[in-house]
Amino acid sequence: RKEVEQDPGPFNVPEGATVAFNCTYSNSASQSFFWYRQDCRKEPKLLMSVYSSGNEDGRFTAQLNRASQYISLLIRDSKLSDSATYLCVVNGGRGSTLGRLYFGRGTQLTVWP
Amino acid sequence: DAGVTQSPTHLIKTRGQHVTLRCSPISGHKSVSWYQQVLGQGPQFIFQYYEKEERGRGNFPDRFSARQFPNYSSELNVNALLLGDSALYLCASSLLTGDYNEQFFGPGTRLTVL
Fold first, then answer.
1. Measured between CB atoms, does B74 come within 8 Å of chain A?
2. What is the pLDDT of residues A15-57, one digit of tens each?
């Protein structure tokens, strides 16, 4: 079983739409959770960290459910510039995997005019 | 401030050859991690170094090795290249090691093995 499972999409939505991405993780010891954005042939860049209480950054809202080991990202009022691959990321937790990041395969989003 | 830098940006090798990839972390960052990203997949952890010591190794064969220098820069070496080693190799730096330190990624080295 993979550490992080993520629906690869693709998601094709019109401008202004609301879109939601989900992922699940297998390591209950994981302590930190993130969404990264990756543009075509570029490096991943941190979009936002995810906290148990849920957090919002402008049009982006992230949620974490530790009991279900489930992470979500909601994008409201989609812009053309949101087109990218969104990577769900969790850390390794304690012990030998401390500090390493585990990535999902990414969900591809295309926003069309 | 300069971000993470990697060299070269692109590389073409043939099967059986070896390759050395280089990474310079953000100034002041002491930890460097290496990831492999195969097309269509998320990055996969290869190594983490902190203060010149290996702190973690992913599920990669012994053909992969790395080291970190006193100035915190790092090299990733891959011997006896296989076609399946073709990927984007990403270096990430963080201030310290551990789970709560944000990792900043470099632009990557795109390796093609023919």
1. no
2. 999 999 999 999 888 888 999 999 998 999 999 999 888 899 9
Per-residue model confidence as pLDDT tens digits over A56-76:
999 999 999 999 999 999 999
User: For residues B51-74, b (16+ Cβ closer than 10 Å) or e, as one string?
Assistant: eeeebbbbebeeebbbebeeebbb
Which residues in chain B have Cβ-Cβ distances shorter than 8 Å to A97?
56
In chain B, which residues have their Cβ closer than 8 Å to the Cβ of A89? 42
Containing A111, the helix (H) or strand (E) segment is: strand A107-112
How many other CB atoms are found less than 10 A from the CB of residue A80? 10
